[in-house]
Amino acid sequence: MPASSGGSQEGDQDRWTKPVARNDLVAKYEYETTEYADEEWRRMPEIPTAEELSQEDVEVPCNIIDDSYESVEEYLSTHYELLREDAVAGLRDCIAQIRMDPDMDETPHMAVYENVMVTGITYTQQFGVCTKISFSLNRVGKQIRWSQSKRLIPGSIVCLSDDRFQTFRVATVVARPLDQVEQNPHEIDILFKPGEIEIDSSKPMLMVECKSSYFEAYKWVLKALQRMRPDNFPLHRYLCFMDKDIGAPGYVEQTGMYNLSTIFPDSINKEKFAEVPILEEWPDLKDPDAKTSMDATQMEALKAILTKEIAVVQGPPGTGKTYTSVQALTTILNNMTDDEPPIIVACQTNHALDQILNYIYVFESNIIRLGGRTKDKENILRRTLHNIRNSAGQINIPGSNRRAILRQLDAVKDKMRRLTRPLREDLISPEGLFELGVIEKKQAESFVKGASGWVQASRVYSEKPDSPISMWLGESIDKVEIMEDLQMGDEEADIEYEELKDIEAEFLGGNPGQDDDQKLYGTADDMKNKYRVADPVGTPPEDIHKAAQKRDVFQIPQYLRAALYCHWRREAMKKIDSQFKELNLTYQRLCQELKITRMEKDSFLLSRAKLIGMTTTGLSKYRSLVASTKPKILLIEEAAEVLEAPVVVGCLPSIQQLILVGDHKQLRGKCSVHALDDDPYNLNISLFERWVLNNMPYITLQTQRRMRPEIREILNPIYKETPLQDHESVMGRDPIMGMGNTNIFWFCHSNSEGSFEDSPSKVNVFEAEMITKFVEYLVLNQQDPAKITILTFYTGQRQILARLLARNVNLQYTKIQIATVDSFQGEENDIVILSLVRSNLNNTIGFLSNENRVCVALSRAQRGFYIFGNAEMVTRKSNLWWDIGKLLQRSAAQKKIGFQLPVTCHNHKTQTLIEDVIDWNDLSGGCRQKCGAWLPCKHKCPLTCHPFDHSDFRCQEECERDKMRCGHRCKTRCWEECFCEVCGMSRSEQERDQNGYFDSDDMDDNQWTPAPKKGYAQAATTVKAVNGIKNVVNEKRNRKGVMV
């Protein structure tokens, strides 16, 4: 903390009462423009134009991945143009399609919305003036699950046209509240460019959206690349020119000595590591005093992180790359002085960011989470910038003109609202037409005078507006009818709800106030049209012009009035539109100035933190703000999963050190245009992987602490150069209950795949059914459902699995995790079941050919790993899968691959081979033998072998206990309380009656409730609870034979 801060590390550290100097860097970086640059790519507008989206032939450069670039300009322009193409190519194709056939229905890659109408305007401080529009889903033809749909999410760009796409405008979706999109008609809020805003509520439009790309993910990176030059792009000699002579960071060279005692917490002689000249010497792990939990390769990685301007650390699955990052950050933070700028940490996902920030928070609480949406409701939520800002109170920055800007903003807003008042009426009034200069004063007066004689007669038109112009138009006014969408069935979900909320929160900047309903905050004007006047076709222009000259409008023939009103309305719209757009430019400029004043306060708060965390999307979005704190160190987790450009723009002008932690063998970055993935473009090759491909220095962690050895073994074909070593903690782990010693197995089959009617995603119903029964078997064997994860490469298969598990009576109350492989990077679980899905006559294996995805899929399990898929086809098409199959085939103890899945009864040690779904039918988690165990009631258990105990079993045998007090024998079942049908009393009632508690004659039959016998198990024939599930074993009936 700076000496002048006057605050502690907790509680009051965020309060501030003293005046704060303005940080001029905020405005400098935020206002930086490339509009007048020499290079064309630097002058490209932030939002694509209609002209750009109308191009037919586009040439893009190729990413050089195995050599250096010739210049910084070539490097930056190449990545800009490739990324721009990835961002807009899909929408450009959509425009070409809709122009060829404006009446076409939507396709798997293009969404088409018709009957698009302006319904309102919202004046916001965050975005500017936004337009609310309504639309229909007739061309979709399905009911949309908006809470699980990627359609029109904030940050998407759409194209709108009122002339069947001969011309069109581009807008950004800024809000999609669920209550608005689920109503009829559906509504969203969009933002046009200031000079292109549409406010005409009478104009029907057609709207197109590309389903395959999300522009917000590109926008800020593209903008940052345009601003980068050799003089403000540190470390470019390494990143562009692949210079292998990597020096030490400037801040390390200045200090020289480092305190490494946090790395050796158990050392008796900690003073030995309190001052280490790390550029000259490094602790030897053979030293008895060097007691650390880090292994040799982790210590080697730590040395590189502390001593090199660029440190690249490869962390294969389970090798502790996050742990290594945290240890490095601990050390750096421990050596920082109070006046040093914060460290920047960026992660690919919000989940990964929360995880690493929680680790850091243990030893350093002065951190700030910037942007996005945290699921951590304790430590990290308190440290979001929003909450830090609230706890800081009023921050006085002399020279900030925030109040003056707000006054100007309100003044401009008032002018815009007065200007659009005529459009908020059902029909534009004569006064409005006169004020706009469309009609003369005499004409306006004639409306009022002429309508006065029609007031009484107008009452018959009770459903129409009661106004002079309504009287004048008469029968030409129609009420606007809201039509229902034509829908057949539901559209499949294509995004998880939590992922959707993450995207929305990142777009809004992580402000909790808008996180719940996603509505815009500002002054909203409703512009819905309740009535319309149809413009007659074929009215001669000269007739309209002649009619417009008449001073008494009621002298105009009735048949010309609708055409004349539409003419007047168009003229009024021209005047309103031009003035409104001019005012909107001013409003947008003031919003930008207001944003600067907010950023100045945020910059001050961020500069007081020791560490700032954000997603890689936030790294580019908040680049100006973060750059104003002048950070020296940038660490990026899962760096191999991020495209190169988002990492490069993190090299802020003040950065002295870049630390990349990841694994290029696992997931790569994603491109919207698949053609850009491959040679020669190679857009999906990360900076991390390009670094490795150019034989630049990097460290590989080698000791894994996740998988049991037989699971780790199948990763050997992937990590040939640096084979993984097993830590002692993974040895001797307990086997999976019910599987004997089969802790890894590939179940083979040849059942064909399929697909949904409206989705290209693949499904395999047989696999899904087999996996569902297998999961049921594991849960009946008392495996904790939370410790089981089902992985698949296809979203369609995930949906099928979710449905089957929900229908299974033993699993419907559990929370078995079902995830796609791509969403599970960085995660792990005890038992992982992998569904390969692909099985076809064309021998097409799709995603299974992607070795990076396969690496993630194979490396998530800790104790048990089970693959379900067509091994014959997959191994024939992929060398990697062939090697995996050979390893499983040659297993020393027994084959771990085959067409029969071996399951082993825990009680009798009997092995059962499962080949088909029906083979599970007579198993209850055990084998096919009778249980035969003695129950507490001295009867034998009649059930088929089961792994759960008898504590809840309800014995159905007849009661064999002693006679009751009345001398009669009980005729009930064993599990029920003894009851005498002769006397009509239970055993407990007789005992109470014997003791004089009550007279049985006074009891009503409805008051009697049977109670279980003491010392006897209760549940036997209906529901067995195991780990929160229901196991239906049999039916139970009460003593009267009624189903319970």
UniProtKB/TrEMBL annotation:
CDD domains, per database record: NF-X1-zinc-finger, SF1_C_Upf1
Superkingdom classification of source: Eukaryota
Keywords: ATP-binding, Helicase, Hydrolase, Nucleotide-binding
Residue span, ZNFX1 domain: 108-211
Domain DNA2/NAM7 helicase helicase: 294-668
Keyword Nucleotide-binding: yes
GO cellular component, one term: nuclear RNA-directed RNA polymerase complex
Protein name as catalogued: P-loop containing nucleoside triphosphate hydrolase protein
Species for this entry: Ascodesmis nigricans
Lineage: Eukaryota, Fungi, Dikarya, Ascomycota, Pezizomycotina
